[in-house]
Amino acid sequence: MGSSRLPVLGFLSLLLFSATCYSSSINQEEDRITELPGQPPNVQFAQYSGYVTVNEKAGRALFYWLVEAPASRLPKSKPLVLWLNGGPGCSSVAYGFAEELGPFHIHPDGKTLFSNPYAWNSLANLLFLESPAGVGFSYSNTTSDLYTAGDNRTAEDAYTFLVNWFEKFPQYKHREFYIAGESYAGHYVPQLSQIVYQRNKGIKNPVINFKGFMAGNAVTDDYHDFVGTFEYWWTHGLISDDTYKTLNVTCDLGSSTHPSDACMQALNVAATEQGNIDPYSIFTRPCNITGSLRRNLRGHYPWMPRAYDPCTERYSTMYFNRPEVQKAMHANVTGIPYSWYTCSNIVGNYWADAPLSMLPIYQELIAAGLKIWVYSGDTDSVVPVTATRYSIDALNLSTIINWYPWYDSGKVGGWSQVYKGLTLVTVTGAGHEVPLHRPRQALILFKHFLNSKPMPSSG
Prior knowledge:
With 459 residues, the chain is α/β, with parallel strands linked by helices. 36% of the residues lie in helices and 18% in strands. Strands 1, 2, 3, 6, 7, 8, 9, 10, 11, 12 and 13 form an 11-stranded mixed β-sheet that branches. A two-stranded antiparallel sheet has the order 4-5. It starts with a helix and ends in an 8-residue tail after the last helix.
């Protein structure tokens, strides 16, 4: 009797496992996007979008959008990459998906889409997350959550999202997994990476098979961000000698969470001297249809408006507020009492906590042997290449391959340096959103990151 019981238990276990997988597959099928309004014909990849609850008591749920690799690219063989935009308070759907590396961009009519030939889902399955609650379609039933968001809760909620999302999509369990993002995601990306790494410790075959991260034009360390940003403004002729000196004297350079009044006054002078330029891409024309670019000279990073503001931003606002689009995306199912915006002013203005530096996390994850790449578009004056280089220099890493130009079709695409535990890449002529300004070069960068290969040193 004892010996005959084992096969029965094994059979029951198999049935239970099959039922669980079947339930998950039904669950994810409810999130499948059959067709987006205005999308191009003959789309060859699967898309899913919807909500994952991260806190039942508060009623917090985060909105995601999964874009798989095309069928011809064998999506089951491709890694999974989570993309995060920053702000804080800005949408990964508005920027990462619709402007940068997603498969579609939005026409000026705000109704139709066109294919992005340099979409990153040619190389990986992409998971875009609107985070934290209150950003984009992500919501909380507890209104105070929108006024108390900060780094810590954002990271914890993002981790809870991942754990729950992998239950909804069990086919991605144990798949090679990376985290990437830009701007204030320079905080989100390493913080979430640290949580995943620490909670994977001691697990032989973790569900979240985390391999590394990539951060672009990333807010990294307050001291070096201040020093590097002011230096960039001055060396690129954007501010006067006197203002440069005043900024260095009056601004606390990362020793405090709030700049002094004298610093704020100097920053306002700097903004006037810079004039009506696009600070996120200093050599391209700004979008002036509604006047000038936003400048939010306040808060923790007082020179940094929360998002790039080209005219494409308004196309996203039109498209994602259309009821038929939201229905196709399974978005706004609770009837959020406000329109979808590219960035949430409430979340951004009331941001609660932000550590002064990410460098200790870098040191921990470098020591752990994770793959870490940092890239920088060199025409961004908001989180400029000088700030990034100062931050990396502060890590005191030994050099494996010294500074060299990398090439795309015989032309210099930027420069790179390979350190022990970290690779730095610049992209020439790219602004704050590298895949927006230099999409082809950004795809080359992404390919080399995934393949763990240095950027090409010849044409």
